[in-house]
Amino acid sequence: MSIFRQLGQSPTKVDARRFNLSGYERMPGFIQRFLNHMAAKHYSEQTAQRYLYDFLDFFRWVETASASEVDPSSVEIESFVEFDHAGAEAYATYLALELDNAASVINRKLSSMQSLFHFLIETGVTGTNPFQTVERPKRAKRNPVYLTESEWLDFSTLVRSNVGMSDREAAWYERNRERDFLIIQLLGLSGIRVSELTGLDWSDIDLTTRSMRVIGKGDKERIVPLAAPLVALLTEWSSERGPVFKNDKGERLSVRTVQHMLKRHIDRLKPYLSFLVHKQVTPHKLRHTFASRLAMAGVDVLTIQQLLGHESVATTQVYAHIGDEKKIQAITGLL
């Protein structure tokens, strides 16, 4: 066989570690190679980190089930691939009955293990995937949690104020008041993901065309129009170059910082906005708010899909239900 024929016989090895993952060194070599493979396939670092945590949970179960001390980093691949379908079913049962995990969490953890074995099959390490036919719990379909138009307006008004703050907190907030408000407005009026928001550079913003370039999952690019309020806010906030949102050190703001910032505002406003008590508002819930408001305004699902950057229209279909409810209410209200 010529060297050119051999080139396609096995996947290209990716030795460079591109992700800075917590717990990476605790993983056995074959899982480290899988995580490196994810980097090469342009998965997000957040996704890879979730996979790693799922693997740690699996090894904790192995330790409990076997009543033996298990050091994941020392697990040999020859031993690992002896894991069979019965073991996979036992793990699924443990997640459901012992840990009482939600269906979504169980499915995610099983999918992480299935993806790992799929990688081992592709690289010729094993020929079977014990998680392939494990019965999965069915997820109950739920409408997305979102803020109504009046709730969004009330929240937007109070989040910019000093309501619920001490004098000292208000003085500190003054430094980041406009930044925090712009972040929240961008999440609620553009529907971009929090990771997309923190990745924005000023070169992505075009105030002339009132649009911004967003790099989504899998490095896929899309253009998102800017609502008039965002154009005004970005014009006031604009800079010449670099990240749109920076911390006090001048570094790009992290996803976690944005999440914590929003939670602080939610916690201080709960006594004043009762809906915040039962609606757990997160950056992703603001994305739902954007999409839900579009659906209620009669925007078609395909357009919402493109604006959100969903891979499949099936993911966006949940918002169609919200639009249908609005239509039913309109017809019911006719005299």
From TrEMBL:
<keyword id="KW-0131">Cell cycle</keyword>
<keyword id="KW-0963">Cytoplasm</keyword>
<dbReference type="Pfam" id="PF13495">
    <property type="entry name" value="Phage_int_SAM_4"/>
</dbReference>
<dbReference type="InterPro" id="IPR002104">
    <property type="entry name" value="Integrase_catalytic"/>
</dbReference>
<protein>
    <submittedName>
        <fullName>Tyrosine-type recombinase/integrase</fullName>
    </submittedName>
</protein>
<dbReference type="InterPro" id="IPR050090">
    <property type="entry name" value="Tyrosine_recombinase_XerCD"/>
</dbReference>
<dbReference type="InterPro" id="IPR010998">
    <property type="entry name" value="Integrase_recombinase_N"/>
</dbReference>
<dbReference type="Pfam" id="PF00589">
    <property type="entry name" value="Phage_integrase"/>
</dbReference>
<keyword id="KW-0132">Cell division</keyword>
<dbReference type="InterPro" id="IPR004107">
    <property type="entry name" value="Integrase_SAM-like_N"/>
</dbReference>
<keyword id="KW-0159">Chromosome partition</keyword>
<keyword id="KW-0229">DNA integration</keyword>
<dbReference type="InterPro" id="IPR011010">
    <property type="entry name" value="DNA_brk_join_enz"/>
</dbReference>
<keyword id="KW-0233">DNA recombination</keyword>
<keyword id="KW-0238">DNA-binding</keyword>
<feature type="domain" description="Tyr recombinase">
    <location>
        <begin position="142"/>
        <end position="333"/>
    </location>
</feature>
<feature type="domain" description="Core-binding (CB)">
    <location>
        <begin position="25"/>
        <end position="121"/>
    </location>
</feature>
<dbReference type="InterPro" id="IPR013762">
    <property type="entry name" value="Integrase-like_cat_sf"/>
</dbReference>
<dbReference type="InterPro" id="IPR044068">
    <property type="entry name" value="CB"/>
</dbReference>
